Amino acid sequence: MALPARAGKPDSVLAKAVELARSVVLEVAEPTDLGDHLGARAEGERVVTHHFSCTRPGYPGWYWSVTLTRAKRGKDLTVNEVVLLPGDEAIVAPDWVPYKERLQPGDLSPGDLLPVEDEDARLVPTYLVGDDPIDTPLDGDARAQVRRVAEDLGLGRVRTLSREGLDMAAERWHAGPGGPEAPLAKSAPDTCWSCGFLVRLNGSLSMSFGVCANGNANDDGRVVTVDHGCGAHSEVKLARKQQPLPLPDHVHDTVVDDELEPL
After folding, report:
1. Which long-range contacts (CB under 8 A, 24 or more apart) does 161-166 make?
2. pTM
3. 21 with 81, same domain?
């Protein structure tokens, strides 16, 4: 087990107090949870921490840590703390991530709500700036006025994508399964640029992205890059060796009622 590095030479009196440190651990743990002494290290002047392996089931890689100290020229030892700590190979819970950051595409169920913050850099007021980002952020009163005017005029969307929002979407789509690096695209006979099933997007993304409208394709209804591709390209042709073999004629036609000639 990799323990913290030494911080200087430990106090000799405290370093020898292994049994005292062991007895302190036994006050909070069962004897079967305490393993071998792993060593001692100096935390500071007359402050030493002893480490013991942990044998408690379910805690591989953890260790007991007992910190002792004493006064200058004092003989009485004082226990600062005793804790159970994870080592480098210990099984620990993953770092906590806020719920909003843990959400992935497809996680929302019917009825779930995911509010967007007012200061979200991906959005800007629609009727003031159109599709262009604004230089100075609006205060609370201005944002409320934008909402009221947009509702009164029937403009529909209060906010629209900012330049940052467009760039983030473009990067995500380009790196996703509809991008040029997808395994499906690398084995495709041609790109979506020349496919008749590609429906181009409007605006600044029109030259780079579109939506697949081929019901037989894996990407049907999804955003794809123009340099993406798949085997369902509108102009793809089968080679002669890839075409199905023609079926032979029927030995006996069972569709009509022609009588068989007697032998």
Report:
1. 161/122, 161/123, 161/124, 161/131, 162/121, 162/122, 162/123, 162/124, 162/133, 162/134, 163/132, 163/133, 164/121, 164/122, 164/133, 165/121, 165/122, 165/123, 166/204, 166/205
2. 0.52
3. yes
